[in-house]
Structures are given as C-alpha cells and as structure tokens.
Amino acid sequence: xxxxxxxxxxxxxxxxxxxxxxxxxxxxxxxxxxxxxRASPALAHVLDPxxxxxxxxxxxxxxxxxDDAELGADNVYAWTREQRGEMSHEMFYAWMQRHGLSLTxxxxxxxxxxxxxxxxxxxxxxxxxxxxxxxxxxEAEQAA
Length: 144
Fold this sequence. Notes:
Layout: E1 8-14, E2 18-23, E3 28-32, H1 34-39, H2 49-52, E4 56-58, E5 63-66, E6 69-72, H3 73-83, H4 89-98, H5 103-110, H6 114-122, H7 129-143
Antiparallel strand pairs: 1-2, 2-3, 4-5, 5-6
Helix pairs in contact: 5-6
C-alpha cells in the first residue's frame, strides 16, 4: 500500500513569512518559509509582505502558490516536520547522498527493506524517530 502525499487544504499567511496550513493528514501546522524564500532568487519577490499574504493552496492541494510562484506542498510539509524536530524525506535523502548510499546500501545499513527505504526517501511514509536515530548511529560508527 502506498501512502498519498499530504495535500494542503487551507493556507493562512502569518507575519512574517510564516504560514499556517491545514493538511489532508488532519493536522494544522505552522511553517516558517523565510530561509527558503531568501535562498531562492526566483522566490525573492514573495518576501514582499503584500505578495506573501496572497498565499493559497492550489492544484488540488499539491502546491502552495503566490501569483506566479509556487512551492510543492510535499516539500513544505517536509519543512514543517523538520521545524517540529522530526525527520523529513529531504533529510533522509540528504543522509543517503552524503554517504553515497543507494537504496540497497541504505537498507543494509539500517536493517530495513529496500522498499521501506524507498518509501522514506520519497516521503510516501513518515520516518519514525528510531530510523533517524539509526541513521545518526550508523553515521557515528562510520566516523569512528
């Protein structure tokens, strides 16, 4: 069974550069986008408070949009999780990349199935804290 990616059902702009998003997961969560917006020249105009205030869910909840700019809702959801201290698929993928791990090698390192690693990497399944701790422990072992 593959899980569906979270969809943004409702978006409320908060000041400064924060959104409150009601997700298809049933949760309403805040996310701070300032760092992401400042890092992208293509999104710099969204830093204008009047533009930022026009944030909305679009494309059936698959994107967060401001006029002619958009972010994928799956990425925004991942950033929300990171800001809450959870592991996101982006963090998991970065861990794999940092260590040159394929799906198979990451699965072997963590004692998981290749399929589960694929789910975690793509964001199709939430990553349990125990898996993030295993990633950190594996990383520490490699450094020793």
